[in-house]
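## Example record

The block below lists the input lines for one assembly entry, exactly as stored, with component labels intact.
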Amino acid sequence: MYALVDCNNFYVSCERVFQPALEGRPGVVLSNNDGCLISRSDEAKALGLKMGAPYHQVRPFLREHEVWVRSSNYALYGDMSRRVVEILGLFTPEVEVYSIDEAFLNLAGLRYTVPDLTAYATRIRSTVLQYVGIPTCVGVAPTKTLAKLANRLARRTRCGVLVLETPAQRQAALAATPIGDVWGIGRRYAPKLQECNVRTAADLAALPESWVRRRLGGVVGVRLWQELQGQPCLEFENPEWDEDGQLVSAAAARHTITHSRSFGQPQQEQAVLQQALAAFVARAAEKLRRQGGAAHLLTVLLGTRQPGETSTSRTHTAVLSLPEATEDTAELIRAALRGLQKLWQPGVAYYRAGVLLSGLEPADQPQLRLFGSTPEQLARCRQLMAALDALNQRFGRQTVRYAVAGQKTPSWSGRAAFKSAQYTTSWQQLWTVR
Amino acid sequence: MTELVLYPPVKASQLTRLPVFTCPVPAGFPSPADGQADEMLDLHQYLFKQPASTFMARVTGESMLGAGIHPDDFIVVNRAITPVDGHVVVAVVDGEHTVKRLRQEPGRTWLEAANDRYPPLELTEDSDLRIWGVVTHVIHPLFKKRPGAAWPGRHSRPSA
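Predicted structure tokens for the full assembly:
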């Protein structure tokens, strides 16, 4: 059996742990740059506020209904998430962190020691609430897809726990789940399935395998179908998430490293973009060295999304191949600036920029080239990078940086007008008690 | 001009780790073999027995002076401990966090300050009291690095 533990309104809940005055009142947390709503309290949901609604559009409404607003505070959310995962580890050795606020627990090994799954799930929930102060919902089922589905239904129960053990329980849960809410169906398949009169998860599970194979993306669809029937097909893995709280699949994380940000204001100046890209490269290269890799390819990404037209998001990319795989920040910055030169156009407003390192290989076995660096040069560069990383780790991020990256608090950095303190991770901003 | 700050290079040997001797130290001539340091003292281990549920806070008020908790001290708060009568706790009162001593008698619960200037706070049935966590340690500096501050004890130096 698998359990899916999902933190309720996670960012809102984190804010409330340290600001009890926010409890019982409608509140929202905004995305990077205070762009749109990414977390809403139950009271805010009841007011009809929608996920992803642009902040500037709903601002009058928020003021009118005295809804509290916070900018996203990932230092706090990351620390709270880490604590939740640590506590989940008390309940089973196999915890798969699925996103910043969700984790799967493999309960297979507890078959004989935990006969009452509902009681166990209730204990998981009450322990997380007591130890960290975050309310959760727990769904338990024989497959991950069903656990996800159970979790969704658990949100509507008063106890916040739903266990699907018997076939009858499973059938009832499938019938209560609209097809669009099934994990893995997504926006693309839901309308197609509805046309074929497949309206609930139960409708899909009742179809023959051949139909699913033909109409639902082949093997992937069959796997999903089997999961709904209660046959586990999905692997247990450990994906990572980036600093924006966005999920990076484990496979992708091994093969590429990205760092990207949206700007507080759209940027036109080439010099500003240079600074931003150099800073992003520095962070990506740091990650690269931490996992002991070297990159062959560097991709520069520039986003020219106009506000309000989300569908026509335009991303311009330039791919640069490096003469030899490298983990040297200076080398990578040079490549990124060449890429910027190719992409940048005067008068165009850029909303987002980023870099992506790919073609990764272990750093200790680069292929030497006839006209490449000598082993001595490589060793010196490695020493320099090790010193750079050690200094930044000890004295704080960006303490030592390449001059082209500009100021420590850059002009392009995003808006975060309503950010709470880093209550748990900074001595200066530590939580205070009277 | 941007201010340029120079930092000394990091040496592994500068990490502040103190050796602890797990063998008893006899008086007299110790055996040279006994001088093996086999563990490092880790203050975290002592303060954070349950790191996932333990939080640090800075105290701002003077209501707990009598319990040895001063303004600007750090307190270590563990949420995993079930509070009982006599525990110093962080409670939520009127939407704010406050540190007080929890007192419980059959049928009565109140929060007690350790300072005469602060009256006890009786908790009636309808008042919304929540205990946030139990305070396990206070970290109180005895010496503050303030420019111009006198070295402690200098004023009481006996005159020659």
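Residues 90 and 96 of chain B are 10 Å apart (CA to CA). Residues 1-5+41-143 of chain B form a domain with the Umud Fragment, subunit A fold (CATH 2.10.109.10).
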